[in-house]
Amino acid sequence: MKVFISYRREDSAGHAGRLHDSLQSRFGADNVFMDLNDIDSGQNFADVIQTAVRSSDVLLAVIGKEWLTCSSAGHRRLDLPNDFVRNEIGTALEHGVPVIPVLVQGAAMPLAPSLPEPLKLLASHDAHDLSDERWTYDVGRLIAATEKLSGTSRPSPRRRLVVVAAVLVIAVVAGLFLYLRGRETPTALAGEWSADITYDWGDKYTERFTFKVDSGAVVGTASFLGVRRGIVDGTVNGDQVVFETRTQEARGDFSSPVSVAHRYRGKISGDTIAFTMQTEGGSSGVPVEFTARRSADVVSPQSK
User: pTM for this one?
Assistant: First the structure.
């Protein structure tokens, strides 16, 4: 299996290099391509990149906070036809090479309107977060997603035993870490919250949130347009909470609704949570910022 790492040097060189080292230990040095390490002197840079992308089983697009806005001579780099990052991802999309957006530095997934035409399809791909605090755990999940997406066959029995042992160690360490973190501040998030939200089309709703925390995992409900939705993929790490809710949206043909994901990121501070919510797949993708407040009948230890 061959993996191509696409990244913007000004944006995420450090994270890309660390990811390159982590993937090499799983797939081998010859099967993970990264431009600074895998292009010999005298070779045509553009030709090598094109060949490497087309021969890869998966392309990982590493996206940091400056990935979308990096500029050169007053022009956004992604808008330049000769931009290497644009060409790497565009070639993968054009030739059917699976692409996984990898978000680092807490970056948000770019929306289709913000991307140049050859890359707009990238916005419809499921992103994978890599956090510095849970690097080993997150990379393990990324490896699993990469192998699943590429249809890689299972490893030999001997290698499988090594991989299983490593995964068990990672799982135990990650589980212990999440358990301890969850025990440190379970009540900082748990309970009832509400927020007055004005959406970009002008409608106002009082949305309500119910959170339960179990060893770092977050479950409960979060309302959207006044209707409570079940929380999925929820985690709390210190004062950071991340989760999703999902809905169905009808556009003309009510017999064929479209799946929509609402992704929430929040920072807990006492009895308030500063949230950013972004809808993906819906008719509106404009991020919404709002502040949720703990319900009056629930008092957190911090506020006593």
Answer: 0.50
User: What range defines the domain where residue 50 resides?
Assistant: 3-152
- 135-150 helix and 157-184 helix, angle to the nearest 10 degrees: 140
Q: Are residues 12 and 133 in the same domain?
A: yes
Q: Are residues 278 and 180 in the same domain?
A: no
Q: What is the pLDDT of residues 170-229, one digit of tens each?
A: 666 666 655 554 444 445 899 999 999 998 888 999 999 999 998 889 999 999 999 999
CB 20 within 8 A of CB 62: no
Nearest to 12 by CA among 83, 70, 84, 58: 70
How far is it, in rounded angstroms, from Cα 185 to Cα 210? Answer: 16
Same domain, 231 and 165: no
Q: Is 40 helix (H, G, I), strand (E, B) or coil?
A: coil
Q: How many domains does the chain have?
A: 3
DSSP string, 162-209: HHHHHHHHHHHHHHHHHHHHHHHSGGGT-EEEEEEEE-TTS-EEEEEE
Neighbour-count burial for 79-96, b at 16+ CB within 10 Å, e otherwise: ebeebbbbbbbbbbbeee
The domain spanning residue 245 has which CATH number? Answer: 2.40.128.30
Beta strands 204-214 and 99-103, pairing class: unpaired
Cβ-Cβ contacts under 8 Å for 185 (sequence gap 6 or more): 236, 238, 239
What DSSP state is assigned to residue 54? H
Residues 75, 88, single domain; the answer is yes
Two tokens, residue 83: 């931009």
